[in-house]
Amino acid sequence: MTAAKPRIFVSRKLPQAVEERLQRDYEPHFNPDDRLYSGDELIAGAEQSDALLICHTEHLDAGLIERLPGHLRAIANFSVGVDHVDLTAAKARGFVVTNTPDVLADATAEIAMLCMLGAARRASEGERMIRAAEWNTWSPAFMVGTQVTGKTLGIVGMGRVGLVTAKRARGFDMVIHYHNRQRLPSDLEAGATYHETLEDLLPHCEFLALHCPATATTEGLLNSERIALLPDRAIVVNTARGSVVDEQALIDALRLGKLGAAGLDVYRNEPHIDPAFAQLPNTFLLPHIGSATRETRDAMGFRALDNLDAIFAGSEPGDRVA
Ligand code: DGY
Fold first, then answer.
1. Domain annotation covers residue 82
2. I want to staple 237 with a disulfide (CB 3.0 to 4.6 A). Which of 92, 115, 249, 296 is the partner?
3. What are the DSSP calls for 91-130, one per residue?
């Protein structure tokens, strides 16, 4: 008799190749309509499963984790960010939690560059004008933005994504400054200037890119006091998580012209974001698509499955976060 395959409750529709591997190696419950499940539905799914395979759209807070069945072995995330899971609560219940680091760096750094360029060169305004058939002139004063080439870029969080963003930005001759919990070895630093505190970093940043994880420490990290330390007309880019920004402070600074522009891919309360962002002319806005390439989404799924494979083979998964 062959052993029963582990049952995996898959919360969202995954790339075809990932679902095929799940089908081959596990007994998966798929979500073909890609519907957002309620907490009760997640609990019901977990009751019939050995592991959950979830995305950042599923919020497993302490209350929900308390209700998960004790037989559940693991919560595998199809994401690098794990701020949607209460890791302390999961650990206390003995659930193994994994994420998908490394594989998102290139795709997310591309979106950081897009946000930087889009915000600086007024891409949203230009696009809207053309789509509304409102483009009717050209003059030396028309749609003048900020040049990216040669400017200083401050990076908050020089992890995998921050490092790739720095590398791409160097292609635009940008001068890199950064703040990180720890200074990097000089080969990784590659000439970037380290600042021990954010307060030291900010006055140097004509552009500021946020690449730090969402944690209790980074909650509201970019607030009005810190925005005030940026050079006037600085441009802020966020592809990390909305919670690292005090959004009202950002909106006020964009309105008052303290900040020149913002390029944002992430927000608090997604997808119901503060409508003020869309009303401001100096924002370039994307709907949390940092990792949304075919290559990266496949890689995220395979990485999540590598972790599940290890767990069900009785070994330590490569990307355990709890
Ligand atoms: C991540 O992996 O954290 C991305 O933001 C998508 O969830």
1. yes
2. 115
3. HHHT-EEE---STTHHHHHHHHHHHHHHHHTTHHHHHHHH
Nearest CA to ligand 1 atom 3: 81
Best mutation site among 104, 210, 321 for ligand 1 pocket (most ligand atoms within 8 Å of CB)? 104
Q: What range defines the domain where residue 93 resides? A: 7-103+294-312
| Residues 244-262 pLDDT 10s | 999 999 999 999 999 999 9
Cβ atoms of residues 78 and 291 within 8 Å: no
* pTM confidence score: 0.97
pLDDT digits (tens, 9 = 90+) for 103-112: 999 999 999 9
Given the CA of residue 55, which atom of ligand 1 is nearest to it? Answer: 7
* 79 and 112 both lie in a single domain: no
Indicate which residues carry an active-site annotation: 241, 270, 288
Nearest protein CA to atom 4 of ligand 1, as residue: 79
